[in-house]
Each structure stands twice: as structure tokens, then as C-alpha cells.
Specification:
Elements (H helix, E strand, L loop, with lengths): L9 H12 L3 H33 L5 H45 L3 H6 L2 H43 L1 H48 L1 H6 L3 H53 L5 H42 L18 E9 L9 E9 L3 E6 L5 H8 L7 E6 L2 E2 L5 H6 L1 E4 L10 H6 L7 H10 L3 H5 L18 H15 L3 E5 L7 H17 L3 E6 L10 E6 L2 E6 L3
Helix pairs in contact: 1-3, 1-9, 2-3, 2-5, 2-9, 3-5, 5-6, 5-9, 6-8, 6-9, 13-15
This protein binds adenosine-5'-triphosphate.
Adenosine-5'-triphosphate (ATP) binds next to helix 10.
């Protein structure tokens, strides 16, 4: 996913923002106009200050100048406050749209995307990279647009006030650039390294905190501390590097600025003596110089930060080129799944050359309880994923009620399959959120019924907030077995035609296993729900007449007399 392009194209960033951020152009134009008029206003303030000083020196009446100056101050404030807000608002809104588009697309991507990209990396794309873009377009972009006007305007006024002095000052400015440019480039490299090191350290510290159990039971607190220290030490090293550059840069810039001030005073005094400049003119000259140099430095840091944004833009664009999963929404809908057939199915994962399933054929029928057994890594979970249509076979055919899976509407198909996996899946939120997954149609009655089947109703009724109890990070409030049963209850709420179970009893004790097995029998016999149970635990499939055994990616199907 990482794509380091050598040259940054600002066009890419603009395209990204316009296409996905859909910025409110009218508000943006209004904000820019207000900011431009505000900048012109601040240049006029400087000129008014010049008039005021000259008027007071000559003891002329200056009340009119003061009134104009106050009006300009007020006018400037009236313009710049809404301008800043509007431009910031347009940028926030554009980044919100970009984030939503990105997140919407990510949630619809096929499974292999999530297998190939770590969750932390995906989160960083959606939040950190878009935040980098936000920082640029919310402040740096408008600041530099108006800064450009301030720079040109102030420079023009300086030329008008004293063109000779301005040419001398211009001679010193490149000296300033000579110092600032390379050092600032160094600073931007360090700040990028700091960002990366910070993200890595945060990741390590949080991983170590989540695994406190493992660390404690192995008495490896020292190892955990070292993991954190390593990242912190890297951060320290980068902070020192940053400090080194800054401690050279800041005094050097101050000295050079003082040099410019010194030259202006010397030459300004000479010009005043020659009658080419007034006292007010010299003061205004200084202010104009600040109004020219400030945007110059922010323009420079804008160009260096473009590099950071370029990386973020590339990474976001790479995600945006991914194709959403084709769920074949116009495909055939089967009312009730009667049978699923694998016909000579071979399969390899998109990122791999290895055939995981080789010429696999079997049939499972409605109403039956079928066991899917095989050694770890033999391909049981892969078979379940293929049934869900997460992947298509590399060759051969999967049929549901005789219809090739490619022709089926996958949303409808998945609606009829209840998939519970060995991995405990908890989302942030309450028990209700975890069971209904945001489906408003699910009633409390259905939730309690499913909880009763998995024998968790009594426990949850005893909690003060019952279904609204927050499950906590990764369900820390419940035991592994209870969470496993909760995820089983989640599947029951779907009331599927087929239950696809992937080692759901792996973290349950024998009592719990027995209860789940009883629940499965009730579902199968009373509610006519078919069961395909992938497991290592032969005890859990004792009553299963149909067995599919996976050996090295090939299967044997047999019938067991009970
Ligand atoms: N996304 C993937 N990309 C590439 N290879 C994969 C992927 N997922 C699984 N595999 C490989 O496919 C093979 C079968 O894995 P699978 O998870 O289906 O086995 P399993 O029988 O369910 O194992 P277990 O009982 O341990 O869960 C393994 O060799 C595994 O490494």
C-alpha cells in the first residue's frame, strides 16, 4: 500500500480534495475574499500609522487619521474573524467528506484487503493521513493565499517608500533564505521521522498494555518496559536532533533579522537626513518588512509540509483505487437454502500461489448436522469463507440450491448464513450493540431469547444496566467463554438457514460446551436450522451423522452411524 512517489504533484492533492472532499466552494470564495480584503486592510493600517506619526511630528491635526486608523482596525477584525472561521470550516467539512468516503469504501472492500493491511495501518490512513491534509488546507493554504497578497503588497509599499533601501534589503533576504531553507528542510525530515516513531511507540505501548496478562504470567515486565523504552529512546534522539537544528536556526535568523533592521536604521537615517523619507515612513517601512517576511517564512514551511502531505495523499489515493466487493445485488435470491455443493473446487488466496483446497467436492443439505474436521491449517476456515462468498473458487464450482454462487445476491445469501468464528469479535459499545450490530429491527425480546439459548440471560439480567452494559475493551468485563457465547447469540439473532461454526467451543469449559451442544440440537431439531460445525474437538460432534474430513486441502465425506 505504501507508494513513495519521488515528486509531489499538488494537482493530486487538489483533485483528491475536490473529488472526495466536495468543498463548499461558495463559502470558500467568500472566506478568501474576506481574507484578501482583510490583508489589504492591514497594509492600509501600516500606511495610516505612517501618516499618523508624520502628522504628530509636524504637529498637524491628526484626529481624522486616528479615526480612519480605528475604523481600519475594526474593519480588519470584522473581516478576518469570519474569514478564518469560514476557511477553517470549509477545510473541516472537506476532510469530513473525504474521511467518510474513505471509510465507506473501506467497509465495502473484500476480505483480502483486511487480511493484507493491519487494522492500525487502516486506521492511520483514515485518521492520521487525512489530519495531515486537514492541517495543510485549514490553515496553511488560506494563510499562504493571503500571505502572498501581504508579501506582494508590502513589497510594493516598501518600493514606493524607498526603492533604494528596498533593493539593499532584498540583497540580504537571500542570505536569510540560504540559512533558513536547508535547516528547515532538515527540520521537516526530522518531524516526519518523529511522527512515524511516535505512531510506532504508541502501538508498542498499547500492545504491551493489552497483553498485560501474558507479560505478568511470564514475569516479563522488564521485556515490556524495554519495548516501551526503545521507542521512547528513539523519540528522545529525534527530539535532540530537532533541538540541535532549532538552536542553530533561531539565533541565526534573529541575527540576520537584526542585521536587516540595522541596515534599515542606518540607511533610513541617511534617507531622513536627505529628505527622502519621513519618520513615519521609516516606521511603516519596518512594519511592511514584517508583513513581507512573515508570509515568506510561512510560504516556505508550506512547501516543506507539502512533502509530508504528498505521502498522505498517495496512501489515501492508493486505497481509493481499491474496488469494493461485488455483492451482485441484482443476483438471484434463494428463499431458503436447501443444499450447498462444492464441485471440484480448488482455491488459492489472492496473495498466494499455494493451492489451499484441491479438487474438493461435497454436499451439505438443509436440516442436517455436518461436522467439518481436519488438522489445524488443513483448510476448514477457508471452506467456510468460500461458502460466505468472501472469496470465489480458483476453479470448480460452489452451488447453492444448484445455482452457482457467482449468480447469487451475496447480501441475501449472507443473510441466510450464520457465521460464528473462533476469533472473539467484540465491537466498542454495549451488549445490545454487540448483539444487534446496529440493526434497529432487532427487538429486546429477540435479544433475550438468544441470550437464554446461550445461557447468559440470568447473568445479564443481574447487571444494573442489563443490555446497555458496556462490554469494555475487547470484552474485558466478561470471561472468554462468556464472550464466545455472546458471539454465538449474535448469530442466533439472525435466525439463519445454516449455521457455519468455526471452532466456537474452543474457549469453553466442558459444561459450557455441553450447553452449546444442547442449544445446537434444539436449533437443529426444533427450528430446522442446519449446522456445519468446523472443529478439532471430536467430543462436540459426537451426535453428527455427516462428516467432512479435510486432509491436506482435499476432502473425504462420509456418513457415520450414530
Ligand atoms: N488470507 C490468507 N492468505 C493466504 N493464506 C492463507 C490465508 N488464510 C489462511 N491461509 C492459509 O490457508 C491454510 C488453511 O487455513 P485455514 O485457516 O483454512 O485452516 P483451518 O483448518 O481452519 O485451521 P485451524 O483449525 O487452525 O483454524 C493455512 O495454510 C493458512 O496459512
Amino acid at each position: 500500500m505504501e507508494n513513495q512517489r519521488a515528486h509531489y504533484k499538488i494537482k493530486d492533492l487538489i483533485q483528491l480534495i475536490v473529488r472526495y472532499g466536495k468543498p463548499k466552494l461558495k463559502l470558500f470564495t467568500l472566506g478568501i475574499i474576506l481574507a484578501i480584503v482583510g490583508t489589504i486592510c492591514s497594509l492600509a493600517i501600516t500606511n495610516q500609522i505612517r501618516l499618523l506619526i508624520d502628522a504628530s511630528v509636524k504637529s498637524n491635526g491628526y484626529s481624522r487619521t486616528i479615526i480612519i486608523l480605528i475604523c481600519l482596525f475594526v474593519f480588519n477584525l470584522i473581516l478576518e474573524v469570519p474569514a478564518n472561521f469560514l476557511l477553517g470550516y470549509v477545510a473541516s467539512d472537506a476532510v469530513l467528506n473525504l474521511r467518510k468516503q474513505l471509510w465507506r469504501l473501506i467497509t465495502t472492500l473484500p476480505r483480502h484487503f483486511f487480511k493484507q493491511n493491519e487494522s492500525g495501518v487502516i486506521a492511520s490512513r483514515v485518521l492520521n493521513d487525512t489530519q495531515t491534509i486537514y492541517s495543510l488546507i485549514a490553515s496553511a493554504l488560506p494563510q499562504n493565499l493571503t500571505g502572498l497578497i501581504s508579501l506582494v503588497g508590502a513589497f510594493a509599499m516598501m518600493l514606493i517608500l524607498n526603492w533604494r533601501l528596498t533593493l539593499i534589503v532584498l540583497g540580504i533576504v537571500p542570505l536569510l533564505a540560504l540559512v533558513v531553507v536547508p535547516l528547515s528542510q532538515k527540520l521537516s525530515v526530522i518531524s516526519r521521522l518523529l511522527q512515524a516513531a511516535l505512531a510506532e511507540t504508541i502501538n508498542k505501548v498499547s500492545q504491551m498494555s493489552i497483553n498485560d496478562n501474558l507479560i505478568k504470567s511470564f514475569n516479563r515486565e522488564k521485556f515490556s518496559q524495554k519495548m516501551g523504552y526503545r521507542g521512547m529512546q528513539t523519540l528522545f534522539g529525534l527530539n535532540v536532533r530537532q533541538l540541535r537544528v532549532l538552536s542553530i536556526l533561531n539565533p541565526l535568523v534573529s541575527v540576520l533579522l537584526l542585521l536587516i533592521v540595522f541596515v534599515i536604521i542606518l540607511y533610513g537615517r541617511h534617507s531622513i537626513n536627505q529628505g527622502q523619507l519621513t519618520g513615519g515612513g521609516l516606521t511603516a517601512y519596518f512594519i511592511y518588512m514584517v508583513q513581507m517576511i512573515t508570509p515568506m517564512t510561512s510560504l516556505f514551511s508550506f512547501f516543506t509540509s507539502l512533502k509530508t502531505v504528498s505521502g498522505a495523499t498517495d496512501r489515501i489515493q492508493n486505497i481509493l483505487t481499491e474496488k469494493p466487493e461485488n455483492k451482485n445485488l441484482n443476483g438471484i435470491v434463494v428463499a431458503h437454502i436447501q443444499r450447498i455443493d462444492f464441485e471440484h473446487v480448488s482455491f488459492k488466496y489472492p496473495n498466494s500461489e499455494q493451492l489451499i483446497l484441491k479438487d474438493v467436492s461435497f454436499t451439505i443439505r438443509a436440516g442436517e448436522k455436518t461436522a467439518l474436521i481436519g488438522e489445524s491449517g488443513s483448510g476448514k476456515s477457508t471452506i467456510l469463507s468460500l461458502m460466505e462468498g468472501f472469496y470465489l473458487p480458483t476453479s470448480g464450482q460452489i452451488r447453492v440450491n444448484g445455482i452457482p454462487i457467482q449468480q447469487l445476491n451475496l447480501v441475501e445469501l449472507r443473510g441466510k448464513l450464520g457465521y460464528a468464528s473462533q476469533d472473539i469479535r467484540i465491537i466498542p459499545g454495549s451488549i445490545r450493540d454487540n448483539l444487534s450490530l446496529g440493526d434497529q429491527k432487532v427487538t429486546d425480546l429477540q435479544l433475550w431469547h438468544a441470550l437464554q439459548v446461550v445461557k447468559l440471560d440470568t447473568l445479564i439480567r443481574s447487571l444494573p444496566r442489563q443490555l446497555d452494559t458496556d462490554l469494555g475493551e475487547q470484552g474485558t468485563l466478561f470471561s472468554g467463554g462468556q464472550i464466545q457465547r455472546l458471539s454465538f447469540a449474535r448469530v442466533l439473532i439472525k435466525f439463519p438457514d445454516f449455521l457455519l461454526l468455526d471452532e466456537i467451543t474452543s474457549s469453553l469449559d466442558s459444561n459450557n460446551v455441553q450447553e452449546i451442544m444442547t442449544a445446537l440440537n434444539i436449533l437443529n431439531q426444533q427450528y430446522d436450522i442446519s449446522v456445519l460445525n468446523a472443529t478439532h474437538n471430536m467430543h462436540t460432534i459426537e451426535g453428527y451423522p455427516h462428516v467432512i474430513q479435510v486432509i491436506n486441502g482435499q476432502v473425504k465425506q462420509f456418513f457415520k452411524r450414530i
